[in-house]
Amino acid sequence: MTLKLGVPSKGRLMEKTFDWFSARGIGLSRTGAEREYSGAVTGIDGMELVLLSASEIPRELARGRIHLGVTGSDLVRDKLAAWHDHVIELEPMGFGFADLIIAVPKCWVDVDTIADLDSAAAAFRATHGFRLRIATKYHRLVREYLRKEGVADYQLVDSQGATEGTVKNLTAEAIADITSTGETLRANHLKILGDGIIHRSQATLFKSRKAQWTGDDRKALQVLKDSLAAAHV
Ligand SMILES: Nc1ncnc2c1ncn2[C@@H]1O[C@H](COP(=O)(O)OP(=O)(O)OP(=O)(O)O)[C@@H](O)[C@H]1O
Ligand SMILES: O=P(O)(O)OC[C@H]1O[C@H](OP(=O)(O)OP(=O)(O)O)[C@H](O)[C@@H]1O
Which residue intervals define the domain ATP phosphoribosyltransferase catalytic in the entry (predicted)? Predict the structure, then answer.
């Protein structure tokens, strides 16, 4: 058995994860053909690279199929109920920053806070006969947040992409999605509610509580932790 490290298989997160480990003396790379999902590790014995979709990594950690995983802190919180029971946050990595926010049309001049949204939602239901729709793919985080804030008169509409477009397309009145530069929100005439930041996410190295840890796995983890502690980056 080797210690399995799950890393996003493509895009920004994969490249920045490779750079992050490289700056700490550990080489991660994709091997094989361009589209083949296999990888190699150098600089540490007994560790295997597993390339996965960022959104699958939380479940793989919770099932114990990987020992360590890099993914957004938003995805761990959204994909896993009681995430603390399944994983431990070892290290925030300082990239992949994105805020999960709630946004409404800019033209809703009376709605700037969650309390305003609550009032608007009640009025919306009275007028339209159905609950105000919030489009998102972050179902757990949005539900938990709105429950905490005392907002109940809404329904979630699932949107797995191009979420900001749902308002213009009249399939939702509000959205909850991640933003980094804010460009997509601006382009779609949406504004963030003042207190509508649900979670500030960044790429994070997680450890599974559910994986089986052999003596060799623990040794490899200790070598990894020593490399992280020794790096002055
Ligand atoms: N500007 C951004 N757009 C999208 N995701 C971002 C951005 N900045 C940081 N992230 C983070 O990247 C992660 C999502 O990565 P990615 O889109 O590769 O995941 P995925 O849902 O597994 O993708 P796919 O389903 O296409 O494989 C989330 O943790 C998110 O917070
Ligand atoms: O604040 P910004 O810098 O504009 O970034 C935010 C956008 O980026 C992400 O979408 P992505 O491009 O990953 O596509 P998606 O809509 O398919 O999720 C996210 O869902 C927002 O739409």
Answer: 54-223
| CA–CA distance, 3 with 81 (Å, rounded to integer) | 25
- Verify that 155 and 190 share a domain, yes or no: yes
**pLDDT per residue over 21-78, tens digit each?**
999 999 999 987 766 678 899 999 999 999 999 999 999 999 999 999 999 999 999 9
Q: Does the C-beta of 161 come closer than 6 Å to ligand 2?
A: yes
Whether the pLDDT of residue 233 is over 80: the answer is no
The answer, as to whether pTM is greater than 0.90, is yes
- Distances from the Cα of 233 to the Cα of 26, 216, 229, angstroms: 14, 28, 10
- Among 11, 1, 7, smallest CA distance to 27 is for 7
11 shares its domain with 64: yes
Question: What's the mean per-residue pLDDT of the chain?
Answer: 95
pLDDT of residue 74: 98
Q: What is the CATH number of the domain that holds 138?
A: 3.40.190.10
Q: What is the pLDDT of residue 231?
A: 84
- Is residue 67 within 8 Å of residue 41, measured between CB atoms? no
Q: Whose CA is nearest to atom 19 of ligand 2?
A: 178
Q: CA 190, 195, 197, 198: dihedral to nearest 10 degrees?
A: -120
Residues in contact with ligand 1 by the CB-under-6-Å rule are 8, 11, 13, 53-55, 72, 74-75, 96, 98, 178, 180, 201
Same domain for 104 and 81? no
